[in-house]
């Protein structure tokens, strides 16, 4: 909780002194996002790994601090305005790591950041190739590392499709991208599940699907 308060004070200072065009400090903002994501993903805050009694005790005393800092990260991202493009594709990995935390409200609040990144790169270059490449590479790594689940896949699909379909220029390319990533996620989750299967043919079939 002490660290959370310190990070929030750091965030206040960034908004007040280092956000406008003349005083913007890329490295400080970068440090903020990496620090906040590292805080959110640390082992001692992953409540689903604790017994129900310990979890209830922590929630009662502190609440879910992951949700608190996650909402703050989301707000800080939107505060960036025209500076957002400077963080793409580098921030895709850390944001993905945050959205994969198995907390439903946190996921619902932060997955839309991906659409904002797509939109931002599209306005700058008329495509979102760098974002797409980065999320596919990082997703592969994260799912292999044990993160991600069926609920995440469903939320990712639903939230991003809704956003894309409302956008004049991203409706078609956005939908193609979302379908691609969801299909990849399905294959990666299947592959992860079957990795320990004795049947070599099953494993090979899953590997071929991923490829």
From TrEMBL:
GO terms for cellular component: cytoplasm; plasma membrane. GO terms for biological process: cell migration; myoblast fusion; small GTPase-mediated signal transduction. InterPro entries: DOCK (IPR026791), TPR_DOCK (IPR056372). Residues 1-159 form the Dedicator of cytokinesis TPR repeats region domain. Coiled coil: none annotated. This is DOCK1 protein. It comes from Neopipo cinnamomea. GO terms for molecular function: guanyl-nucleotide exchange factor activity; small GTPase binding.
């Amino acid at each position: 909780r002490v660290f959370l308060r310190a990070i929030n004070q750091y965030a206040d200072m960034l908004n007040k002194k280092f956000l406008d065009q003349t005083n913007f400090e890329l490295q400080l903002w970068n440090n903020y996002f990496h620090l906040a994501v590292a805080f959110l993903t640390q082992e001692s805050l992953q409540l689903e790994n604790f017994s129900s009694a310990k979890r209830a005790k922590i929630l009662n005393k502190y609440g879910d601090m992951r949700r608190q800092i996650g909402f703050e990260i989301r707000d800080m991202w939107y505060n960036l305005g025209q500076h957002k493009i400077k963080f793409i594709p580098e921030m895709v990995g850390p944001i993905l790591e945050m959205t994969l935390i198995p907390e439903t409200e946190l996921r619902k609040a932060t997955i839309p950041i991906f659409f904002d990144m797509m939109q931002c790169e599209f306005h700058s270059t008329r495509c979102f190739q760098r974002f797409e490449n980065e999320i596919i590479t990082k997703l592969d790594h994260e799912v292999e590392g044990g993160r991600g689940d069926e609920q995440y896949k469903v939320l990712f699909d639903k939230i991003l499709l809704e956003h894309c379909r409302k956008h004049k220029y991203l409706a078609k390319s956005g939908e193609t991208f979302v379908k691609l990533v969801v299909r990849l996620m399905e294959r990666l989750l299947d592959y992860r599940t079957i990795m320990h299967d004795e049947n070599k043919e099953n494993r090979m079939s899953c590997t071929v699907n991923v490829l």
